[in-house]
From TrEMBL:
Pfam families: DDE_Tnp_1_6, DUF772. Residues 21-111 form the Transposase InsH N-terminal domain. It comes from the Bacteria. Residues 382-505 form the Transposase DDE domain. This is IS1182 family transposase. InterPro entries: IS1182_transpos, Tnp_DDE_dom, Transposase_InsH_N.
Length: 508
């Protein structure tokens, strides 16, 4: 038989002789101590300037920053949950010195006070990491992007193409009404002309409808359908056009946006739970890492990665007043513009282009434009049969990012009866090819760089450096969707997330 069971003494109502000190309840080396130590070390003057004098006293910005950073470090993103933690959680209570900001104060601080200045706080923390020798701002950085869903509903879309179609339809109906009015009231409309498409705006449309109405006023044989359409047009078209104009301003050249979060663009989401790549309102997050620490983050409204790199690098330079020696990125960034920008800034581009991996396995495709030898001194190409292809002209092409590319055209001399004709090209006449010499040179240089010993090391390291950071943020810490709307507020969320990630990893 076993001995008598003995339980530890337990009396929840017993008073302790001395109250507990919160300090004793927070172990040495606990992440909350790291947050306090680091936030105490940064300069919060940019934040202080956001406060106006007078009125009731405010919680100190350093205290509020600690609350949010530790909140994001412990996956507590909601302002109401943060309010709860400040009142109940020993670590939060210790960090805040028992102060208890409410959720409105927390939200206002995050949305308004941190907007536009958090990047300066973030960069100071990266500089502390550099001082400790953990990262180097001059060494290679690894860049990649991911899409994070907006808080807006996925059924709130506005499409740029749809607005254009609606305006075109309105113009066609207006032309039809104008033509009808001309047919029965030519005299009244003789000194006026129908609207051009560029003039389709609320004022001009209103004016044109009034002119048609005035011209048809005394006419008895006006069809009922026309009167009905004119009444509808007068009542709705100017108002609809005003709405379209407002939406086009918010779109600012984008193809889509969300009605409830106009800064968000509809993007194809890889991680969609339906696994069918649904279009959802989202932002494109770009980060540059080193040793899995985030050194730079930017948020973009364009779904394509290549368009984000120039401004991403500009911000790096602006934050640290220096540039990395190299950038390592996948084929999504390999564009003529990006190679040129990096070359100009003296940064080595270890960036693949879209056909790099295929070319490494199979070689350059026979008969493709890239396979044709170019004689730079005499400016001609050599066709697969060894014949010269003479330069026949130059042109320009503007990319979707507004970058101007120079294109040179070359034409073969005699494709008639060539035994290679069937596999070389199918078009009638002699083969004409278009070559972007700038991109061609950049691709050749990139291939050489990527195949050096250093290039191979970087290529192996990239997926192990930057990609796990996204996995940490999205999967381990459950941040798949923003809580706030608008570019400035979502940027703050990413800033807090990046600071929290760096602190979590720093003292892990």
């Amino acid at each position: 038989m076993g001995g008598k069971v003995v339980f530890k003494e337990y009396d929840p109502d017993q008073l302790t002789f001395l109250p507990y000190k919160l300090e004793e309840l927070v172990p040495a080396g606990h992440p909350v101590r790291i947050v306090k130590q680091v936030v105490d070390a940064v300069d919060v003057k940019p934040l202080n300037r956001k406060y106006k004098g007078g009125g009731a006293s405010s919680f100190h910005p350093r205290l509020m920053l600690k609350l949010l950073v530790y909140g994001y470090l412990t996956n507590t993103y909601s302002s109401r949950k943060l309010e709860e933690q400040a009142a109940q959680n020993v670590h939060f209570m210790w960090l805040l010195g028992m102060k208890k900001p409410d959720h409105n104060t927390i939200n206002r601080f995050r949305s308004e006070k941190l907007s536009g200045v958090l990047k300066q706080i973030f960069s100071q923390i990266v500089l502390l990491l550099q001082q400790e020798g953990i990262v180097s701002l001059k060494e290679a950085i690894f860049t990649d992007g991911t899409k994070i869903e907006s808080v807006a509903n996925k059924y709130t879309f506005v499409w740029g193409k749809s607005i254009k179609n609606s305006k075109e339809k309105m113009k066609a109906q207006l032309d039809e009404l104008w033509g009808y009015a001309q047919s029965i009231a030519a005299e009244e409309l003789k000194d006026t002309a129908p609207l051009e498409y560029s003039e389709i705006n609320p004022e001009k449309v209103k004016e044109t409808i009034s002119k048609i109405n005035a011209a048809l006023e005394d006419k008895e044989d006006v069809a009922g359908k026309v009167k009905q359409k004119l009444n509808y047009a007068k009542k709705h078209w100017p108002e609809n056009l005003a709405k379209y104009d407002e939406q086009e301003k918010l779109l600012a050249g984008r193809n889509s946006m969300s009605k409830t979060d106009p800064d968000a663009t509809f993007m194809r989401m890889k991680e969609d739970h339906m696994l069918n790549g649904q279009l959802k309102p989202a932002y494109n997050l770009q980060i540059s890492t080193q040793e899995q620490f985030i050194l730079n983050y930017t948020l973009h409204q364009t779904p394509t990665d290549y368009q984000t790199l120039p401004s991403h690098i500009e911000q790096y330079e602006s934050l640290y007043k220096e540039l990395p020696k190299a950038i390592v990125a996948d084929a999504g960034y390999g564009s003529d513009e990006n190679y040129g920008v990096l070359q100009q800034k003296g940064i080595e581009a270890y960036i693949k282009y879209n056909t790099f991996d295929k070319e490494q396995k199979e070689g350059i495709k026979a008969f493709s434009n890239d396979s044709l030898h170019y004689n730079e001194a005499e400016n001609y190409l050599t066709c697969p049969m060894g014949q010269r292809m003479h330069h026949v002209g130059d042109g320009q092409r503007i990319t979707s990012s507004g970058f101007l590319q120079l294109i040179s055209r070359y034409q073969a001399q005699n494709c008639e009866g060539c035994p290679m004709r069937g596999v070389c090209h199918q078009n009638p006449g002699n083969r004409i090819v278009e070559i972007n010499h700038s991109l061609r040179k950049h691709k050749q240089a990139a291939t050489e760089r990527l195949n050096t010993e250093q290039g191979i090391k970087y290529r192996k390291r990239r997926p192990a450096d930057v990609e796990p950071v996204f996995a940490q943020l999205k999967h381990n810490h459950g941040f798949r969707r923003f809580l706030l709307k608008g570019m400035s507020k979502t940027e703050v969320e990413i800033g807090l997330l990046s600071i929290a990630h760096n602190l979590r990893k720093w003292k892990a």
